[in-house]
Design goal:
Elements (H helix, E strand, L loop, with lengths): L4 E2 L30 E6 L5 E5 L6 E6 L2 H13 L3 E6 L6 H7 L11 E4 L15 E6 L15 E7 L10 H4 L3 E4 L4 H11 L3 H8 L5 E6 L2 E7 L3 H7 L7
Parallel strand pairs: 1-3, 4-8, 4-9, 5-6, 5-7, 7-8
Antiparallel strand pairs: 2-3, 2-11, 9-10, 10-11
Helix pairs in contact: 4-5
Length: 243
Amino acid sequence: MSRSRTIDVPGNKAAAPEFLVTPETLDAISPSGDRGGVIIGSNPQNEAEAASILRPHPTRMVTVGGLYLARQLALRAMATGAWVIVATGRPGAWKTLERAAGQTPDGKPVPLVQIRRLAPFDLPRSSEDTPLLVIHDGGAVPQELFPPRAPWQTTMYVLPYLHPQVSSGTAANTADLVLLQRLPLNQAQLAQRIWSLMNNQVQQMTQLKDDQVIALGNMTWTLIRLVTNKKEQEILGPIRRGD
């Protein structure tokens, strides 16, 4: 069996354990590990790549690309027992999470998932037993409506593409983890300026397949192939780059 690797996130004291499985076994098991440890996919060595995206530190992460990746991460955070709150201008695109979470006996959506409009509101208290993932789906230049302020709170910014204004914004520059899908050359060059990347990394970003992402973090540049289990396919459909 292949041994997994955990992506290094600055200040990480809650690293996911090593998963003694290959990515192919994800069809038979839950895609998540411990509280906060989430398998993202597999690396070129066919090892499962995990990241502790929910941890005892206020955390920022960014996804750049289609909605598929962000929704898959949300499902996997839910599998760890996290509360997921989505602030979005397109609530219909996130209803799949509500359906996946199920309903209470009186037919209402379970409170594990909340879909809200893009406006400030009070967040529930986060803790190790109830970590909180706040998803900010507010376009390419998001406002800081819900900056992570508490332990076990992660704010994930869903960017459809890289915008020049992002280079001066908080979300991209201070993110603990960035997951990048394929970018056109001009956006890859913008990523180079934001994160001080090398020319070969710019080229790699423009050549990613639909099921590939780059994980960019603390001294980390990792190519990951997305892996989707059967249940996730029923909820999200096939892996894809766009929305």
